[in-house]
Design goal:
Elements: H1 14-20, H2 26-42, E1 47-52, H3 57-68, H4 76-79, H5 82-85, E2 97-102, H6 105-115, H7 117-125, H8 135-144
Antiparallel strand pairs: 1-2
Length: about 150
């Protein structure tokens, strides 16, 4: 029987370190978190955080309530199976921590707009006004506003 070719050597990744990190060693977990933040920042992410992979029971109850009330808007991906959607262990058996990352598209839009700043001033001189913020931005602000009571 011919010898099997050896597998190419690959560098140890953050995921490999996560598999090896002992949850009882806060130093190893802190080093892993720092490495993931560094890698995410280098990749252009604006924020990197960590959350427990415990089921999101409040979110599940909210999804089930909205679905029962017919407020799902046909969004099967979100409302099709609230138990699956709110339990990370259903996607990855043994998951203990979620790595959560965000990238601001608004920041990119503002940077693009600032590149055209002279044009904006020229339009302002002719009486054109800035466009209102997109509906989704206004809706997001409304949802975040404190509610009375």
């Amino acid at each position: 029987m011919p010898a099997r070719p050896s597998a190419p050597q690959t560098p140890i990744t953050a995921a490999d370190r996560a598999d090896r990190a002992d949850s009882a060693d806060p130093g190893a977990l802190a080093a892993l978190a720092a490495e993931l933040r560094r890698l995410g920042t280098e990749a252009g992410l604006d924020a990197i955080g960590f959350a427990s992979a415990e089921p999101f029971l409040d979110a599940r109850a909210h999804l089930e309530s909205r679905k029962a009330d017919g407020l799902h808007g046909g969004m099967h991906f979100t409302y099709g199976d609230p138990v699956r959607s709110t339990d990370p262990a259903r996607s990855l058996d043994g998951a203990r921590t979620l790595v959560v990352a965000a990238r601001s598209y608004r920041k990119e839009r503002l940077e693009r707009e600032s590149e055209h700043e002279p044009d904006q001033h020229r339009h302002a001189e002719h009486g054109n006004h800035p466009q209102p913020e997109p509906k989704h931005d206004a809706e997001h602000k409304r949802q975040l506003a404190p509610r009375p009571g």
